[in-house]
Amino acid sequence: MSTNEQRRAAAKRKLERQVQRREAKAKRQKTIGLVAAGVVVVVAVAAIVWFVVGRGEDSTATANPGDPSLPAGAVIAPEYTGELPPFTHYAGLGRDCEYTPSGTASKPNTPPRAGEVPTDPATVSLSMATDRGNLGLLLNNGQAPCTVNSFISLANQEFFDDTVCHRLTNSPSLSVLQCGDPGGDGTGGPGYRFADEYPNDQYPPNDPELQKPVRYPRGTVAMANSGPGTNGSQFFLVYQDSQLPPNYTVFGTIDETGLATLDGIAKAGLADGAQGDGKPAEEVRIKAIRTD
Question: Considering the entire predicted model, what is its pTM?
């Protein structure tokens, strides 16, 4: 082999080694990037779970509903946000509603009937009168019958009458008004708890998807809780699309009049100029909730 050919062969081998090193480096960087992205997702989900579930109120956290809230200004990357799953009817829906004693009732009431409850009619219309305006609620009895059964029972017993909506959130990822605690401090409940329904019941048990945020659309009515199976009387009204794991039972929607009322409440902001999470600047008092 001539000297020129030897030089060309050596140069070719050197170039091949350089290409191999670049490819290996790029592969390492891609792996690191994927791991970092995974860490971001895990941290984001962990933050949701901690702030949504972990902020229970000391000793009452397991006995009474907790907080469907995120820290002020929290933003979950949109690419990690999914949608609520389509509802699929299953054989046991509404056939075994259990209302288990839990803590002390914040206001006297009789627990609703347990066992099998009707899923027909599929929807039930209620009116929620407040001192800031009225809200029309359409409860989805066909998807969350145990929840609707409890809510209507409490409404008919005047459990919600003359109670305040104690929390307003206005972070980019959580925009809700929370109500349903007669004590007005977020620790109260009806003295019983019951299981989660839609969307939680559309996933297999322990499905990792249950820890990933989904969009709770504007106009949603959902139950607050402090963990699996801790639904009570506290509920929240979504006035802007919000992001939460699918562990909060969706049981109704709000009409346009109600959304206008919520928009006015949200526009007034939080008490003492707070941002993200706190009491509404203008007190919101429920006068009554009744079936139409």
Answer: 0.77
